Fold:
Amino acid sequence: MFAAPSDPANLGLVMGTAVPRSSEGDVGNVIAALVAADGTGAHVYAHPASASRLAASIANLADAAHYLCMLHGRHPGVIDHAASRTVDNAARSWLLQASDAFAAERAFLTQVTVAVGPLPSTSGQDQCDATVLQQRHALDMLAQSDRRGCAMGAAIALVLDWRAVRKVLEVAALRVGIEPPPSLIPTSSATLAVAKALGTDENITRALHFGARQLLGQHRGLWDLLQARASIRQQS
Structure:
């Protein structure tokens, strides 16, 4: 269900939102619209309005931290893979900043995961673990794609969507007495400017869209899973 298709040319298998046929100049706007519509901040479980509900349940916070750590807590990650496969000068400085910043985010994620305690026991645990491992494998494949622009699309979407993901982590951190450090990830404007600079032709633009959609699809699948697990615990 959550695995990325093996052929990056096969668009739209994970996300339902249609990507409009775009000109070279608006690739950043399209990715921004995808993040707004299908990213973490748009999911009912992870939406900022749900922060109080999440904060009230240490089990829900532990669930989120542990599975986010399983998905993004390992090095090399999506941005590191993209940095090793991207030769575009327009992306180099952004990739260096994003890679260094995400290393700090990874450390923060790990710190929170340890502090919130063990993964809460939930029915279907083995299947849930297997699903998130499949998601991680799908992201690894995506970030190591040979199709020019695909890995960068995923990295760009990760940086843009991480702002909403981090809000959940900050709720968890504060709940266990950790002061969240400032985030150093590139700004949204700088990130979208890189996307625009890279979208030099239709093939690269489509690959950027594909990479972004697949990354957002994996994130949305994770929040769907966490929401289902919280519901199961509430009923038990």
